[in-house]
Amino acid sequence: MSTYLKYGCVHPRTLLADLAAAEQTESVRRYTDELAWRDFYADVLWHRPESAREYLRPELQALGHDSGPQAEELVRAWESGRTGFPIVDAGMRQLLGEGYVHNRVRMIVASFLVKDLHQEWTLGARWFMQHLVDGDLASNNHGWQWVAGTGTDASPYYRIFNPVAQGKKFDPDGAYVKRWVPELRDVEPRYVHEPWTAPGGIPDGYPEPVVDHAHERQVALDRYARVRAR
């Protein structure tokens, strides 16, 4: 419903009324929470309009970001879904193909750009707004700030999504990955989220991982620690 909410085709109160009348399951509660998050971010933007493009926690601008030809090449790999991390690549290809990605995948690919590739959240926020059919300035940009740890979350520095673990947890059979990454359709499900471990190796046409996640995770944590120590 996010696209319909963005363009005003349906009011959130309509959805809340329907949810209130439904059986109060965990799914209903979570849906209600997501609507609350949407209004919360709209309220943040109303009171802090500069937060659409500026850090809510400006001290974290001191983190620094990677630049240069190699960094630009990594960004292009992320944009095109060629990072070698299947869940990230599936999400980025779906974004290009459909203009929509599930919120869980948005968080995974955002974390990868900011904390594995060490890029500024504003770069990813702009890319999403260019391609999402439900691109809402408040939800999108503050969601990116949440992932980057520069927004409304009180202690976000340690939250770094492991793309392999996330893939295994939320796409255990690899169905989502195989839909968007055809190079991996013949890989056994147990290897699909880390194809470099498959007996036959990485299939032809699919890239090696562009970074070592464990190493880049530590780099990100070290950068946050230095900023927080100031």
What proportion strand? under 5%
Query: What coarse outline follows from CA principal-axis ratios?
Result: globular
**C-alpha-based Rg, rounded:** 18 Å
Count of DSSP-assigned helices: 11
What is the typical, i.e. mean, pLDDT? 94
The CATH top-level class label of the largest domain: Mainly Alpha
Helix percentage:
55-70%
Distance from first to last alpha carbon: 43 Å
- Number of distinct beta strands: 0
Which structural class do you get from the secondary structure elements?
mainly alpha
Order of helices and strands: HHHHHHHHHHH
CATH-derived architecture of the largest domain: Orthogonal Bundle
Sheet having the most strands: none
Q: Flag low-confidence runs.
A: none
Number of domains: 2
CATH-defined fold name of the largest domain? DNA Cyclobutane Dipyrimidine Photolyase, subunit A, domain 3
The name of the CATH superfamily of the largest domain reads DNA Cyclobutane Dipyrimidine Photolyase, subunit A, domain 3
